[in-house]
Structure formats: structure tokens, C-alpha cells
Amino acid sequence: MKHHGNITDFQRRVYVALMDVPAGRVTTYGLLARQIGCRSSRAVGQALRHNPFAPRVPCHRVIASDLTAGGFAGHAAGPEIERKRRLLAGEGVRFDATTGRLAEPRRVHVFYHGKVKGVLASVSNKHFKAIRDLELKTFKP
Question: In the predicted model, what is the mean pLDDT of residues 128-137?
């Protein structure tokens, strides 16, 4: 897997789109995939698994489509998932203790399409530059 200065165009698209999800909100792997024009939520998960820019690119804000926590750092259970839940709790995002699902579904971030897309494209360009700048700082030949 390529890291830092060698991230793929697909990874870059995932990371740029994810930077639009604010603290206190989450999105799903499927919604993020749809936002970048991808049909595979698993591919998005794999890109996030190898996110070299965490926490600036907040992969902890992506949850499963059934609104459970989903995976984190390549793990589906265990300490990494608890860490993800703690990170989200620190942003005010909670999961129901009984069902394990997002306690407040209103916290799911909505990606806008249509006329607003031009506005978001400029925001994404800003994030694209931030990622490029991070690559230049962290890439070691």
C-alpha cells in the first residue's frame, strides 16, 4: 500500500471528501463512497484503513450503514473500536448502549449535490491543498 506522497488518486478523493465532515458529525462508508462516485463502500474502508493523515483527515467519523461504529484502523472489534468510540464521544457523538447504533441519527452528515456542489468544490479544493501540503511535509524519499 502506498503512503504519504504516494497516495493514490482514489485515496485522495476519499480523504478530501471526508474533510468536509465536521466534528460532532459522522458519515457512512456508503455515503462517502457515493459522494466520490464510487460504488464500493469496502474500497472506501480500505483507503481509510491506510489513512496516513489521521487525525487531520478524521477517519474515525465514518461509521457503518447500519449506524454502528464500523471498523477502525483495520479492526472490526476490540480496543481500536473502543478508541474510535472515545474519539467520537469527545466530539459529542454517542452510540446507544443497547443497540450499539448511533444514538442521534441527526448527526449523520449530509453531502449536498446539485447547485451547492460548486460551493463544496471550492471547499474541497482547499482540503486538497491541505493534503498535498501534508504529503510534502511527511514524505521521506
Answer: 49
Catalytic residue among 26, 57, 59, 62: 59
**pLDDT per residue as tens digits for the range 70-114:** 999 888 899 999 999 999 999 999 999 999 999 999 999 988 754
The position carrying cell 472489534 is 77
CA atoms within 13 A on the CB side of 21: 30
**Contact by Cβ (8 Å): 12, 130:** no
Residue count of the chain? 141
What residue spans define the domains of the chain? 4-138
**pLDDT score at 80:** 93
What architecture (CATH level 2) is domain 4-138? Orthogonal Bundle (1.10)
Is residue 59 among the annotated active site residues?
Answer: yes
- The pTM (predicted TM-score) of the whole model is 0.78
Q: Is the bond leading into 52 cis (omega within 30 degrees of zero)?
A: no
**Packing angle between helix 41-49 and helix 9-18, nearest 10 degrees?**
90
